[in-house]
Amino acid sequence: MAAATFAYADLTDPPGTTLKAAAERSGRYFGAAMGGDRLSDSGFLAIANREFDMMTAVNEMKPDATEPNQGQFDFRAGDAIYNWAVQHGMRVRGHTLAWHAQQPRFWGSLSGSSLRTAMINHINGVMAHYRGKLAAWDVVNEAFAENGSRRSSNLQSTGNDWIEVAFRTARAADPGVKLCYNDYNIENWTYAKTQGVYNMIRDFKARGVPIDCVGLQTHFTGGSSLPGNFEQTLSSFAALGVDVALTEADVTNASTSQYQGLTRACMNVPRCIGITTWGIRDSDSWRGNENPLLFDRNSSPKAAYSSVLNALNAATTMVPGSSTPPSTPGSASPSHSASASPSAPSSSPPVTGQPGCAAAFRMVNSWGGGFQGEVTVTNTGSAPLGGWTAQMTLASGQTLANIWNGINTGTSGTVGVRNASYNGSLAPNASTTFGFLVNASTNTAPGGVSCTGA
Ligand code: G3I
């Protein structure tokens, strides 16, 4: 049965006793990476299920895995990881759509516009398959060199705009998923590569190129350890208007001070939304015998595990929009009750045009014991919406286990879902989606799906 996790974050909750529970207190996630071979490793799966609420495929969603031959997509390995993760209450990060390594063999015989077209087709093909299902995509991976200029690669040779083309293609292919740029050695603020990536994100934001997040891989090796300015790096990226996440963390010999420091830095930056370790046990790591993870080869938590857990529980900042709205019965707090009915409340600010909201449910995936659903909320009125609240009624025996891109009230029967901090504003005709997991004895679709806007 999927572990129940809830969207409400509350720093006054008792300390979490697992990584995910401790992270969720402040609206964050704690993730891991897994290869397909771990799906038959019961030791790995037990820890994954207990401790983590986000999963990344180590290799199975990369370009060579998902499009081995031109136009022939293969999602079996990626789907196996995706299905296990969502069936156990986790969300999934997509890794990755375009980078210089692990490319389909046929990309090697292409160049110029034919390679550019192949990249665009790849992004469209893969994102169509996972549309509406993932928390984020690492759209582009490792495109910068250590000196802060672009890494030379066959993709870079197609023109300097290849990265923004990838992001624009990705936004059109799946408007609901967060689009990330992901790289290593960008943790030290004064490092040339960090500045190179920072300047690209700043330029994208200035020119309206769609980008939502930066993934800092956070591989701390002998030659690259936790920099004293890591928090400054995270907050500087966040100040550009993107989320940041630590996407592949591992530390030589699992230094407790470095693990504690990287976790504290993330907890101190509101838009640092989560941490992923690249594997779970030392035996899962790509780093041979460096023992860089939080669990040892016997599946026991190491000292670094405790330092991370404590740092998660000590968080004092929350991810924006993750907290429960204050309950203010009878107060004069802003109304969220403007609805599809013709008259807006008289206390509301003047509204030009008629408010309206429509909600539609889609069954994304189902299995014995539950399903993944998605609700599309559309502004059907002629005035912009500043927020919305959806309703749906779960059948008897069904329980909401997890939700993203929305904040729930209740977990059974009639459930309310209000917008997250970043998807409440909807222009006329614009829509957004929220997704959720339901534990169910029968996979009946929710009834009474509706919304009101304000
Ligand atoms: O599957 C083949 C197998 O059939 C063959 O016998 C074997 C022989 O070497 O190779 C196997 O493929 C290997 C694959 O991992 C699966 O184990 C590749 O050689 C190996 O290169 C590949 O390494 C992966 C690496 O990315 C490739 O760049 C690692 O597992 C994976 O952990 C690593 O992940 C990267 C992130 O994507 C990006 N950031 C850095 C991170 C660590 O390098």
Task: Please characterize this protein's 3D structure.
The chain is globular, with a radius of gyration of 22 Å. It is built from ten helices and 17 strands. Residues 1-6 and 325-352 have low confidence and may be disordered. The chain has 454 residues and is α/β, with parallel strands linked by helices. The strands form three sheets. Strands 1-2-3-4-5-6-8-9 form an eight-stranded parallel barrel, surrounded by five helices. A four-stranded antiparallel sheet has the order 10-11-16-13, with no helix packed on it. The longest helix is centred in the N-terminal third of the chain and has 19 residues, at 112-130. Helix 5 (112-130) runs parallel beside helix 6, helix 8 (230-238) runs parallel beside helix 9 (256-267) and helix 9 (256-267) runs parallel beside helix 10. Strand 14 (406-409) and strand 15 (414-419) form a beta hairpin. The chain has helices at 19-24, 42-51, 63-66, 76-87, 112-130, 162-173, 192-207, 230-238, 256-267, 303-313; strands spanning 29-34, 54-57, 91-98, 136-141, 178-183, 213-216, 219-220, 243-251, 272-277, 357-367, 370-379, 388-393, 399-404, 406-409, 414-419, 431-439, 447-453.
